[in-house]
Structure formats: structure tokens, C-alpha cells
Specification:
- The protein is elongated.
- It is α+β, with helices and mostly antiparallel strands.
- β10 and β11 (276-283) form a beta hairpin.
- The termini are far apart.
- The protein has a 9-stranded mixed β-sheet with strand order 1-6-5-4-7-3-2-8-9, with helices on one face. A 5-stranded mixed β-sheet has the order 10-11-14-12-13, with helices on both faces. A 4-stranded mixed β-sheet has the order 18-17-20-19.
- The chain contains 22 helices and 23 strands.
Length: 626
């Protein structure tokens, strides 16, 4: 008998299961049955595609046995099974990012964590919610030896040789004293119907049935009969007209490991030159690993109802990674490899058509149910934006699904509604991006000229906005224009007046440039400001600008790239600039130049490098004014 230590993360989960009270303990059945179904799926695929498994018998079934005297529940399958190393890898460590993400979400609040357990079943470890000891007896398909894994849910587990007639896995749970409700056959059957009715393999359990008296008998009697307790038909293969909403929701629970209801689902069967079926769900809440690089794909691929993979991120684009569901194709070979899958023309067509279907359904939702769409957008809006730079072909459809803040609106508006108010002659969509609070960005000096003219602007303050929107150049006939590049026409008279004012400030501009030295690229006058004295502008012709943008897109700001020097723009009409330009006090101008630059940086949401210097200069200026 070999003793092993649990990985630290597993110990954390087990501690949580043992020492916390959860209201939705029944999900342990869902989790173990889903695992059994996965084991059958994997063996089915190998028997059909791998020469090594050609001689292995595939008789798929899941059995649930209740022993009231021993107080045990046993869930068995005839699937792929596990050998000793598999037991260590699968039950002693956490391999999937989702389980790690679950741990990161824990708060220590039993009520809140209970809801997390319901949303994310935590697989095999959910068994310890009801059992104080768990044993796993397993034999891998094609191998002779069986092994027994056992643990009292402490810091260690044991593995020893065992015997089992055929391949597969049995999980024996020794129930805690107060968990006898799960020894009731009706209770277990109802849980199966709730969560696992449409798992595509039969689930059997002994049931007590009344047998009527036969001829010559005075009375009938009860008899134990081993019966199938689930429908075992792959839901996606059934006609939409024959499926109830409850059945759709129950199937979602089994494949998404989520006790919550899906926000919506879309079931599509394509026939003709290409035959395939898709059933996609949008969760009500974002999966916990949504923003992890190693997120777990939520789409299962089947070929003629034979499971192929649930770990292929190429099945759908990353910006739709929140989807849960199934793709079943009749036009792919069963032995398709991952490499072939990624470059397969049939798969590419299915993927493209599926993406269009999903985006189309989301557009219908936005049009027909604003409240439900708001709930969707709150959870997945920022993920959807990623498609603006990764899916050029569907960029316009994605734009139309976005709800964005604007200068003239107090609440986010659909992009299509915003475009309706864009000047039809200029056809320019103005936008501003920066990672800062919405109120701060709306008060940016760069927006003052738009406010003065009543022109609406997209105000984009999420980090993802600063990455994707500079890459979006047009929508239909409209051009996207950053506010710093916008040219709002002035009359000939206004232009002449501006030229004269700029010329009169040339000497003062030179003084500011001398004072600031290498801190700025240059100082220039601007007539775009109406209220602020100064603002910053980045010269997009700067050789380092494009490199900085690229690094930003890859999340690698800083590093070895020297910062781009800003252009300081001053407002000739501002009282402060007028008075400073008339001053002969060079010390005052020196201090004011640095304070004005720092002021402009603060408007941009930047952190000052020399806070003490800023305060000292400001104090000197204030002392002179008193």
C-alpha cells in the first residue's frame, strides 16, 4: 500500500468540503455521473479510432448502487478506467485551470462559497461533501491490473492493488451520519432526472417495484428490479419541437457544471452539402476562468454522436469562449487529429457558420429583450470586444452588439443607436480611449471642443478599449477618428484670428520649451480647448508610437521601450496663459511650465513622477499671487 500527499490545492478543496455546510450537496451526483459519462465518451472514441483499443469491448453503462446497511453509494462505469499513475494525476492533483480559478474565488463566507460550489461542481472532490471516506476502484481499458484509491479526506491518500472484472471505475462513498437522504432511491432518481437525464449513456439503478398477485396468489409483493432511470438520448439530436425548456436547462446543468440557469440557448441543425448540429448555451454568469489564458473550453465536439474532444480551443473563437455546448458533425473523420482539426476546411465552415449564428442570435436578443441583453453584456461585453481585433470578417456585426458610453448620454447606448446621430456628411465616428474612471474621461480637455459644438463622442474607458479601438478604422461608410486627430472646421475669419494669436505667443512658447527641455517633444498652441489651459497630445508620426501601440496590444507596456515624449498644447484664450505670456518673471514662467505639464498629465490620469517638486512649485506660484 502506497501513501501519497495531496497537492496543496486539493487539500484546500477537501478542507472546504469537510468543514463547510452546503445547501446544494446533491450536485455531487451530477459531478460523478458527468465524470463517468466522460470516461465512456473517451473509451468510445479510442475503440473506434485507435488500433490499440480495437479489441476492447464497449458496453456503455453507468450503475448506481445504494447500500442502506453499509451506508454507501457506489457509482460505477464501464469507461476508459485509470491505472496507478492516472489515479495520482487525476485524483491527487488539480490539472484543470477551472478548479484553480474556483479556489481563487473563495471568500471564506460559507453562504457565498456555497453558491460557487453550485456554479462550479469541483468534479470528483464534491463527493466529500457527503462522504467521510471515498474509495475508487479502477482498471484501465486494455490493462490487466486494477487499483484502489482511498482517502479519509485528510492530507493524504492511499493506492493499493485491487481486483475488478473488467475495465472502468467504481466510486464508493461512505456517507456521513447525517447524509442518509442520499440512500433513498427516489431522491437519487430525481437528481439524475434533474441533471443527467440526457447524458447519452444509460444509467441503471435497483428499484423496488410492486408485482401484482398472479393466479393462485392471495396478494402481490415487492420485487427489486434493475432499471434504467434516465432517457440516455443525446439532447442535441432530438428535434427542437420535441424538447421542453426544462430539458434544455437540465442538459445545460450536466455539460456546464452550473446549477444556475442559462441566459439563452441556440439549437441549430444544418442539412445539405454540410451536415452538422450545434447546441450552444450562454451562461447567466461568467465562468470563473474566463480571463485566464489557460481557460477550459466549454464546447464538446462529437462526430456522429461519438465524443472527440472537449479541450480544443479552436472550435470557436476566443472572444466567444463563454459559450457552453456541443458541435456534432457528420462530415469529419472519426480519427481526426488536433492538427488536422485546426486546418480542416469542413471544421472551418462549421465554425464560421456557427459564429454568424451566435452573433445573429445575440443581435435578436438585443432587439427583443433589452433587460436580458443588459445582463449578458454586463458579464461578457468586454470579452466580445476582443473580436474587434481577432475577427475582422465579423467586425461590423460585433460593433453592432456593443453598448458604449458616450459624451452626451448618461447610460451606455447600443452602437447602432449612436451611429444614427453621426453627421451624415462627414461620416466620422469620434472616440476617446483611456484607462481611467468614466467621469474623469468625460471631463478630458480633449473633449471640450466637442462639448462646445454639441457633437457626441464614444467615451471608452476600459483597458480593452485602449487596445482594440485604435485598430478599428471604419464601420460601413463611417470612419473612426480619435478626438486628437479630429479636424473641426473653422471659418476663414476664425482661422485668421487664430494665426495672429499663435504668432503673438511664439516667444512665450519658446520660453516654455526651454523650461521643460527633454520632458516634452515640443510646445504648441491649440484652439481646441475652451475651458482648460493645457492638454497633452501624442505625435502619431513619432517613430516609437507604433511600436508602443503594438506592445500595448500584447500587454507588454514598459520594458525596454523608451516613453514617447508628449506635445504640450496651450490654450491662447485662457486667462492663465494670457497673464503668463505677459509676465517678465522668468522664475515664475519656469515654475509655471512644469506645473502646467503636470496638470496636463493629471488630466490624462497619469501619476506624477515628482510629487514633491510639483507641490514646491505650486506653493511658490501661490505665494507670489498672495
Amino acid at each position: 500500500m502506497a501513501k501519497h500527499q495531496f497537492q496543496t490545492e486539493v487539500s484546500q478543496i477537501l478542507h472546504l468540503m469537510i468543514h463547510s455546510l452546503y445547501s446544494n450537496k446533491e450536485i455531487f451526483v451530477r459531478e460523478l455521473v458527468s465524470n463517468a459519462s466522460d470516461a465512456l465518451d473517451k473509451l468510445n472514441m479510442l475503440v473506434l479510432t485507435d488500433e490499440k483499443y480495437k479489441g476492447v469491448a464497449f458496453n456503455p453503462r453507468i450503475d448506481i448502487a445504494l447500500d442502506k446497511e453499509a451506508k454507501t453509494i457506489t457509482i460505477s462505469d464501464t469507461g476508459i478506467g485509470m491505472n496507478e499513475s492516472d489515479l495520482v494525476e487525476n485524483l491527487g492533483t488539480i490539472a484543470k485551470s477551472g478548479t484553480k480559478a474556483f479556489l481563487e474565488q473563495l471568500t471564506g463566507d460559507q453562504k457565498k462559497d456555497s453558491k460557487l460550489i453550485g456554479q462550479f461542481g469541483v468534479g470528483f472532490y464534491a463527493s466529500f461533501m457527503v462522504a467521510d471516506k471515498v474509495e475508487v476502484i479502477s482498471r484501465k481499458a486494455g490493462e490487466e491490473n486494477a487499483y484502489k484509491w482511498s482517502s479519509m479526506a485528510g492530507s493524504e491518500y492511499e493506492i493499493e492493488p485491487a481486483s475488478r472484472e473488467s475495465h472502468g471505475t467504481s466510486i464508493i462513498m461512505h456517507l456521513k451520519e447525517d447524509e442518509s437522504e442520499f440512500l433513498d432511491g427516489w431522491r437519487i432518481e430525481n437528481i439524475i432526472k434533474k441533471y443527467s437525464n440526457h447524458i447519452p449513456f444509460p444509467i441503471f439503478m435497483d428499484k423496488e417495484e410492486w408485482v401484482a398477485p398472479k393466479e393462485g396468489e392471495e396478494k402481490g409483493h415487492n420485487e427489486i428490479v434493475n432499471k434504467q432511470i434516465n432517457k440516455a438520448n443525446a439532447l442535441w439530436t432530438i428535434s427542437k419541437n420535441d424538447i421542453t425548456d426544462e430539458e434544455y436547462k437540465d442538459f445545460y446543468s450536466s455539460i456546464a457544471h452550473d446549477s444556475g440557469e442559462p441566459l439563452l440557448w441556440m439549437h441549430n441543425k444544418a442539412e445539405g452539402s454540410l451536415e452538422y448540429t450545434t447546441l450552444f448555451y450562454v451562461p447567466s454568469k461568467a465562468p470563473m476562468d474566463l480571463y485566464r489564458v489557460d481557460y477550459q473550453s466549454g464546447i464538446k465536439l462529437y462526430i456522429n454522436r461519438v465524443f472527440i474532444t472537449d479541450d480544443e480551443k479552436e472550435l470557436m473563437p476566443t472572444y466567444l469562449r463563454f459559450l457552453r455546448g456541443v458541435i456534432d458533425s457528420a462530415d469529419l473523420p472519426l480519427n481526426v487529429s488536433r492538427e488536422i482539426l485546426q486546418s480542416n476546411k469542413v471544421m472551418a465552415k462549421i465554425k464560421n457558420a456557427s459564429v454568424k449564428k451566435v452573433l445573429g442570435e445575440l443581435a435578436k436578443l438585443a432587439e427583443n429583450d433589452a433587460a436580458k441583453y443588459d445582463a449578458f453584456y454586463k458579464e461578457f461585453g468586454n470579452v466580445l470586444k476582443e473580436g474587434l481585433y481577432s475577427d475582422f470578417g465579423n467586425r461590423e456585426k460585433i460593433l453592432e452588439l456593443l453598448k458604449l458610453n458616450t459624451l452626451n448620454s448618461d447610460t451606455p447606448v447600443m452602437f447602432g443607436d449612436f451611429v444614427k446621430n453621426v453627421d451624415e456628411e462627414k461620416k466620422e465616428i469620434y472616440y476617446i480611449t483611456a484607462k481611467m474612471s468614466l467621469s474623469m474621461l468625460k471631463n478630458s480637455p480633449a473633449l471640450e471642443r466637442f462639448k462646445a459644438k454639441g457633437i457626441d463622442v464614444l467615451v471608452l474607458n476600459e483597458e480593452i478599449d485602449t487596445i482594440v479601438f485604435p485598430m478599428v478604422s471604419e464601420y460601413n461608410e463611417y470612419k473612426f477618428v480619435n478626438v486628437s486627430d479630429a479636424k473641426l472646421e473653422a471659418s476663414e475669419e476664425e482661422k485668421k484670428e487664430q494665426e495672429e494669436k499663435a504668432k503673438g505667443l511664439e516667444s512665450f512658447v519658446g520660453q516654455l520649451e526651454n523650461a521643460l527641455g527633454e520632458k516634452v517633444k515640443k510646445v504648441e498652441t491649440t484652439f481646441d480647448l475652451t475651458e482648460s489651459a493645457v492638454c497633452l497630445k501624442i505625435d502619431k508620426e513619432d517613430p516609437g508610437y507604433m511600436m508602443a501601440q503594438m506592445m500595448k496590444q500584447f500587454g507588454q507596456m514598459g520594458g525596454d521601450i523608451p516613453p514617447i515624449k508628449p506635445i504640450l498644447q496651450i490654450n491662447p484664450n485662457h486667462e492663465l496663459i494670457k497673464k503668463l505670456s505677459d509676465s517678465a518673471d522668468m522664475n515664475l514662467i519656469e515654475d509655471a511650465a512644469h506645473v502646467l505639464l503636470d496638470q496636463a498629465k493629471l488630466y490624462e490620469g497619469e501619476t506624477l513622477e515628482d510629487t514633491a517638486g510639483f507641490i514646491a512649485r505650486l506653493n511658490r506660484i501661490m505665494a507670489k499671487a498672495l
